[in-house]
UniProtKB/TrEMBL annotation:
Domain Pyridine nucleotide-disulphide oxidoreductase dimerisation: 361-467
Positions that bind NAD(+): 183-190, 272
Keyword Nucleotide-binding: yes
UniProt-recorded name of the protein: NAD(P)/FAD-dependent oxidoreductase
Lineage: Bacteria, Bacillati, Actinomycetota, Actinomycetes, Kitasatosporales
Gene3D superfamilies found in the cross-reference section: 3.30.390.30, FAD/NAD(P)-binding domain
Cofactor(s), by name: FAD
Family statement drawn from the similarity comment of this UniProt entry: Belongs to the class-I pyridine nucleotide-disulfide oxidoreductase family.
Domain of life: Bacteria
Residue ranges of domain FAD/NAD(P)-binding in the record: 7-327
Keyword Flavoprotein: yes
Organism of provenance: Streptomyces jumonjinensis
Cofactor: how bound: Binds 1 FAD per subunit.
Length: 476
């Protein structure tokens, strides 16, 4: 059966970005079709944010409890692995998307389950799971919101080694006795934290000098120290040359570049991501399949009047909350253009401009200790040519840190633009700092002058008092 239908906008991909696009487009009065070949809710709901944080929350809660007098003894002993995994399954909706489909339907968008591909300008062809064939035409725009996927390196033996990617690491139903993790970025350190606490003996292999290389160097040191204290082995400046695993299964062997061999029951490669654009018909509109989509600040693909690349596919910030932010921006731009409303392209912080993806991208890493950052690091600010000063403070010296128990370790840094007296970036590491990040984001996005921040008195005794201490340190 072939069905031909016309909509104002067709959205490819029903992850958080596509869902938010549909919601805002419908709120703006545009008819919208959404196409998804997997589960509505996307990577975040089933293989990333939700299941990973469900695995990590009991790990972090136990670590915090062990620092609190009167609670420490009650928190000793192993985690209830079965309960943790069952809670994870519930958090991931048991990998069923009925609830998400119902929500999407409630927005008024039309949902098509199947493989959607561009078929020339403003046209999308959808092949459904039961042989349905739909031809969708967009009056105003097609938005590619298909996200990204994990990439495995080109190593001898890896193709047949049944290695884990982030998907397997967040959905596994058994704890491996030994887990090798290759990669020291967010996925690598979060999954090393989770599975070590659940009973795996974890070896973390990092090619560079430290963990979390996109953050300030001291952050990786705090996280590495905590992983080591928890029993994991952290090996820096280590590269894998090949992988061996017998066809019959059994342990996997990693052969390092120095010839050393490491044996594990499972191996997770957390070594990068690629856009899921290899099979969405980009070639039909003159673009290279599998490429990142270059876009302007309204997320419209450069050189196009109707094609948008929103979320991970444009490579501006591979984070769920940034994809949702971009969706709000792009939807507002599409609605305005459909209504003939001129956009204020020069308005840096306007409703149709995704400025925060350049200036103030926030991120929390849910390890113990937590790491959080927004805006520029010191190195990034100096490379960009800003005249800056880095102001550091030991969070353990703040009165509120004592409420977290004995042995609190943490550090805060703010990067001050000395010419404009505003913050360009903030980095925090320590228990509970994730909840401080939004105030930092508001300060950076709002370009709040340091003199104005001085009048925002933090509540006592909370660890947010670190803001006052940073400002005091800066004013000395």
């Amino acid at each position: 059966m072939t069905e031909a239908v016309e909509y104002d906008v067709v959205v490819l991909g029903a992850g958080p970005t596509g869902e938010n696009m549909a919601d805002r487009l419908r709120a703006g009065g545009l008819s919208t079709a959404v196409v998804e070949s997997e589960l509505v809710g996307g990577e975040c709901s089933y293989w990333a944010c939700m299941p990973s944080k469900a695995l990590l929350r009991p790990v972090i809660a136990r670590a915090e409890a062990r620092r609190v007098p009167g609670l420490r003894q009650a928190a000793e002993g192993p985690l209830d692995t079965d309960a943790v995994l069952a809670h994870r399954d519930e958090y991931a909706s048991h990998w069923k998307d009925g609830g998400q489909v119902s929500w999407l339907d409630s927005t008024g968008a039309r949902f098509y389950r199947g493989r959607g591909r561009l078929h020339g300008p403003r046209k999308v062809v959808v092949d459904g799971p039961e042989g349905e064939h739909h031809v969708l035409t967009a009056r105003h725009a097609v938005a590619v919101c298909t996200g990204s996927r994990a990439v495995l390196p080109d190593l001898p033996g890896l193709a047949g080694a049944k290695a884990w990617t982030s998907r397997e690491a967040t959905s596994a139903h058994a704890v491996p006795g030994r887990l090798a993790v290759v990669g020291g970025g967010v996925v690598g350190v979060e999954m090393a934290t989770a599975w070590q606490a659940l009973g795996s003996r974890v070896t973390l292999l990092v090619r560079g000098d430290g963990l979390l290389p996109r953050m300030e160097p001291f952050v990786g040191e705090y996280v590495a120290d905590a992983l080591t204290a928890a029993g994991a082995e952290v090996r820096r400046n280590t590269s894998v040359a090949s992988v061996e695993r017998p066809d019959t299964g059994g342990p996997v062997t990693l052969v390092l570049e120095n010839g050393e061999r490491i044996e594990a029951d499972e191996v997770l490669f957390a070594t990068g991501r690629a856009p899921r654009t290899e099979d969405v018909g980009l070639e039909s509109v003159g673009l290279r399949p599998g490429s990142w989509l270059p876009v302007d600040d309204s997320c419209r693909v450069e050189g196009s009047e109707w094609l948008y690349g929103v979320g991970d596919v444009n490579h501006r910030a591979l984070l769920t909350h940034q994809g949702k932010y971009q969706a709000r921006i792009a939807a507002a731009a599409i609605v305005a253009r459909a209504q003939g409303v001129p956009l204020l392209e020069t308005d840096r912080w306007g409703a149709h401009t995704a400025t925060a993806d350049h200036a103030a991208v926030p991120q929390v890493v849910f390890t113990d200790p937590e790491a959080a950052a927004v805006g520029l690091s010191l190195a990034e600010a100096e490379t960009a040519g800003h005249r800056v000063r880095a102001v550091d403070y030991d969070i353990s010296s703040v009165a509120g840190a004592s409420l977290y128990g004995d042995g609190y370790r943490g550090r805060a840094r703010m990067i001050v633009d000395l010419d404009r007296e505003i913050l360009l970036g903030v980095t925090l590491v320590g228990p509970g700092v994730g909840e401080l990040l939004h105030s930092a984001t508001v300060a950076v996005v709002g370009e709040v002058p340091s003199e104005r921040l001085w009048h925002a008195g933090p509540a006592y005794p909370t660890i947010s008092e670190v803001w006052l201490r940073l400002l005091e340190t800066y004013r000395r």
